[in-house]
Each structure stands twice: as structure tokens, then as C-alpha cells.
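Hi there, hope your week has been kind to you so far. Do you reckon you could talk me through the fold, stretch by stretch? I've dropped the whole record in just underneath, so have a look:
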Amino acid sequence: MSVATAPLVRVPPLEQWSALSERGIRAALREGDLVLTFASPLVFFVCFFVPLRKSMEAVGIDYAQYLLPLIVVQSMFFTSMFAADRAAREVSAGMGTRLRAMPLHAWVPPAARMSANLVRAVTALLGALVIGTLFGFRFHAALPALVFVALTLLFGAALAIACDALGTLTANPELGATVLFVPQLLLVMISTGFVPAEGFPGWIQPFVRNQPVSQVAGALRGLAEGRYPPELTLAAIWIGVLLIGGAVLSLRVERKRR
């Protein structure tokens, strides 16, 4: 007596992505990720604004306007560390093995994780804008403000894609956090985000001016003021390189695990 088997039902890739995205976003809500990503820029802003405001305003700098772009950039780094952590946890918990047993396209799992990462990035950006506005930060023109938001989210997406691939590759949340913490801390601290380049020793000023955090923060600062600054071009190049490199790495890691 033969046993009839049910035919394999192939779900369209977009439906696969939608289902996995919903799962990731629900997990972000349930586990408190969105609360942390909203609160982190509030804490970062206050910690740096309070001790540095008087010295910066003494030389004619509106420090809320100057600092907020760096807080936005820092928030995107914080979001990317969540991306690495969640990807590593999924692999170590066996979810990656389950997904590989399913007829999924290689791009679907990382794309679904990116949906949750973008929700975190938007939440972090909202948190940064809320605290910045309370302390006097303002946009001076509508269209540059939209570019500000787009540039921020593209930068966050570029970081999250690369960090997601790292987390998937290592399958170790602690290792991923350790590897990411030091370089992001150095890039943030040795940048024009807190003080102008002239505040650094002369020998390191070229690096301070041209590294990606300084360029992205400078571009955001100019956009907030209602103009399109020279840093915008180089910031877009940095983001494009990170996006392409992260996407290639992510797909290679996903295919290698299959």
C-alpha cells in the first residue's frame, strides 16, 4: 500500500520575505529592542551635550545643532550592533539550519532581517530627533531635511547589512559585539562629530576630516542647516561602498551556509 505525499507548495519569494520580516519585527518589539534603540540617542546626547555645551558655545558654536548629527551616526552604529547580535543568535539557536532546509532564495533571510534592522534604525533616528529638538536642534529647509533622513537610513542600512553578515558568519553574539565595539568607538571619538578638526593635533587632522563618520556627520550637519555641503558627495561614496560590500558579503555568507 503506497502512501500519498502532499505536493511541495512553493511560496513566492516576496511572501517568504514578508513572513520572516513580520517575525523579526515582532521579536524586536517583544524583546525590547525598539525601546533601547529609541532611548540610546537620548542618553548619548545628554552625556555629551551637558559637559561640552558651554565650552563650544563660548566659541560661537550652537552645540545642539552641531552635536545632533553625530548622535544620529552613533545611533546607526548602535543599531548595527543589534543586527550582528540578532543574526548570530538566530544561527546559534538553530534557526539558520531550519531556514536552509526550506526552499528559500539566498537573499530572503538577510533581507527579512534587514526589515527589522530598518525599523530599529527609524526608531533610533526618531529618538535622536526628539532629544535634539528638546535642546534646540532645528531643520532649516524641508527638502534637505528629507535628504538628511534618507542619508541617515542608507548609512544605517549599509552598516546593518555588513554587521548582519558578520553575525551570521561568526554565530557568536559576544564575539560580534567585541569586534564591532572598538572600531566604531574609535571612528566616533576621532571625528569632527564632537569638536571641529582644529581641536585635534595637526598630524591626525587629515584622518579626522576624511574618515566616514566625519564625512557623514558633516553632510548631515549641512543638510540640517538647509544646504547641500561638500561632504555630501564623499559621504554618499562611503555609504555606496559600504552598501555594495555589505550586500556582497551577506549573500556570500548566506550561500556558503547552504
User: Anything to note?
Assistant: The first helix runs from residue 13 to 30. Residues 13-256 form one domain. The CA atoms of residues 99 and 109 lie 8 Å apart. Residues 1-9 have pLDDT under 50 and may be disordered.
